[in-house]
Amino acid sequence: MDILSDWLSAQLDKDSAEPAYRQLLQLMQQAILTGRLAPGTKLPSSRTLALDLDIARNTVLHVYDQLSAEGYVISSTGSGTYVADTRPDSAAVGLRPPAGANASAEAGSTTAAAACPRGDMSVRGQRLIDEAGVSAKQWGAFMPGVPDVAEFPSRTWSRLQSRLWRSASHDLLTYAPGGGYRPLRRALSDYLRVARSVRCSPDQIIITTGIHQSMDLAVRLLADVGDRAWVEEPCYWGARSVLQSSGLKLAPIPIDDEGLNPGEADLCEPPRIALVTPSHQYPLGMVMSLARRRMLLEYARQHKVWIIEDDYDSEFRYGSRPIASLQGLDNADRVIYVGSLGKMLFPGLRIGYMVVPERLAATFRTGVAELYREGQLMQQAVLAEFIMDGYLTSHVRRMRTLYGERRQLLIDAVTRHFGDALPVMGDEAGLHFVLGLPEHCDDRAVTADALDNGVIVRPLASYYSRTQERKGILTGYACVPHEQIDPAFATLARVIEEHAFTRAPHALRRTA
Q1: Is the pLDDT of residue 131 over 80?
Q2: What is the count of structural domains for the chain?
Q3: What are the HTH gntR-type domain coordinates in residue numbering (predicted)?
Q4: I want to staple 406 with a disulfide (CB 3.0 to 4.6 A). Which of 355, 436, 477, 488 is the partner?
């Protein structure tokens, strides 16, 4: 055996309850991140490594596939698998801003409230209402981001709930303790460790009512009015509203195929908060590369930036295993990980969670109790039983298959109507994809006309805060029964045809 095989063999514990696949994946990741496996190193073939370690070749193949999906390695047919170079380059990304950059930024900043007369609404309140993205309709083809609640195992939930109500103690009927119901925090800790590679203990988990409250709490405790916050461009309008309403100064950072891509000017003015969706960018769907993840974590460490990682629907990934969390790579305790059970179960549940560094856990437990006086302990207790009895895992597995089928049906419908004239973007995971439109199209007008015809989509324009770089509509498939996809898309296609091709300049019109 070579040096790598010797080291891996010494580290693998075949008597451990931890599967060999997970052990080997973590060891390979550790070796790459620490430099034991240098960039450019060629890995042994899957057959050779399996023989050296006396494990199944499929186990090694799965590990190599996951390393490739997360950007640790690069595979080339006929050449082999090599360690990727993901080391942060301090000179290239400008990790140390020039002296005085922060002072000049602060000197030039003014608040809108100082320039506007006081009316019924605050300036930030009026801005929230003017830029609101919430929809009056929350269900139907092709509403993005909505799960199929008709498939939720309500009888199982009802049985668990009835059992708890029959023996309900006073403790379940009062205000929630700071942080939430401890058995639920323990169950979530175990689930997140396995499903999302999150490193945490039950004490680090804070139960909230969802992503919005988690972000609100983090911003209130970690940032002050006027602080700078990075947000992805484009980004989820709800997250942007929460940060903006808290008085933060938003700095939209462009997105490319590797995720968040701050320029030199951005790096010279470190934010207090950076909000990212690294495992499945919302709304465009790309995965943040390992190199960008390491750069962001190193930048956050050097400049004391708090990263809020929104991991909103990464359980639903098609064709590969879910991408590991950014939090799992964080050795400096700068990541606040937030998630929700709404898309996995049903949105009306209104139970979310956040994972905070150990040194902040007591602070956040006090903060959530002081600001929101949380309750819902009975719901939390039911959810804890639901997770511990294995129902969550089996439900997510079943829904991933169902949503994957619906996704493919919708993609097939797009292809039948438009061929390759309209691109499908971000379909590898989640509950929606972006259907691209020609540059001359007004996606807001397409959305309005579609709604008039009984079809719900969202314009990509509403997710940009500056110049819209791409035209498209967010098209959801999760809550649409199989048999309704074709007729509903036929209606949408007629609207798109009118806007994208019938009204198009002659050069852009499709030929029959």
Answers
A1: no
A2: 3
A3: 18-86
A4: 477
